[in-house]
Amino acid sequence: MAPPLLMLEEKTQETHNLSLFSLKEKNHAYKINLVDQNLDDSQCVGSSHGWLAFLDEIDNPFLLNPFSKTQIHLPKSQTLPTIHSAYSSSKINKVVLCKNPSHDENYVVVVMHSIWCRTSLAFCRYGDEKWTNLESGIETLYDVVCCDETNTVFVLGPGPVVEIWDMNETMFPKKKMIIQDSCPRKLAKSNKIFPVDLYSTQWYLALSKSGQMFLVVRYIGEFVRYDGEVVYEGDTLTDDASEPLVCPYKTVDFHVFKYCFCEKKWIEVESLGNYAMFLGGSQSMMVSTKEHAELKGNVIYFTDDYWDRMDEDYNYGGHDMGIYSMEDGCIDPVLECQEQRIVPPPFWINVPHDHRL
Fold it and tell me: Which segments constitute the KIB1-4 beta-propeller domain (predicted)?
């Protein structure tokens, strides 16, 4: 797998470009012009296998390959299986692919979508006109990833609990396994270190090439001062300032666990060795640093996917990205000139092997 590039979307009235930054050449961006794709009112909601997932002006999803300029229109959002409501519709917040549509017509598109406080999964295959519900027993979904080699979908929920679905069935996917073993001790005790009134969490699944499954918990300070201290919202108000202090949310730590299928338990991971992990709104990835010397080993590259707060303040949003060291817990910036507000937020994207920038 080629190392992902960091993608920033640039929109003006006259132009619409994608800027792709290599982690080797951070000061140089490869530009892709998308003016002819009519994406003015569309929003990117993810990336998988080198394809971008967009929602149009009425939240209908479609896929775009920015390298070949190919679009694939997906079933409309109104066909998502959900609780019907006259006042609310389901919102797609993550899209992943099983197999690459550029090379295999048997691809499957899986979406996480939410309405009110419930998150559900749905999927479609090539040629489908409506979404089909993936009848997960997990009421609150945190993440979903796909394994191309086995054509399986891994679904993460609180606990942690993981469902593994076989997408090879022609009629309907089959649930192969449910993992709901005891919570790792470090994770169970994390509320004492990261109290819920100061921090929020994002949970991810990642799969290695060798078939190992990783659980990653990301800790985000809700209001972080310039000196790095996490404070309460009320502490952003001062008697001297006419406006509240700007204290954006910020990632402060990660905990990583690996599931041992033999012992049926989660094991704390202290080092990723010669691997780098990529997290955010895109499908989570693990890449070997032996094969790609431009990457740092034993780190987590992450982008901002805190959708609930990304648009709440004009001073920040989309900004929370960095390179987390598993060795010492330090976080370095991805780009040298990293702004406080980046809209739309950046994503990781893979470049196809047959495409040269």
Answer: 20-325
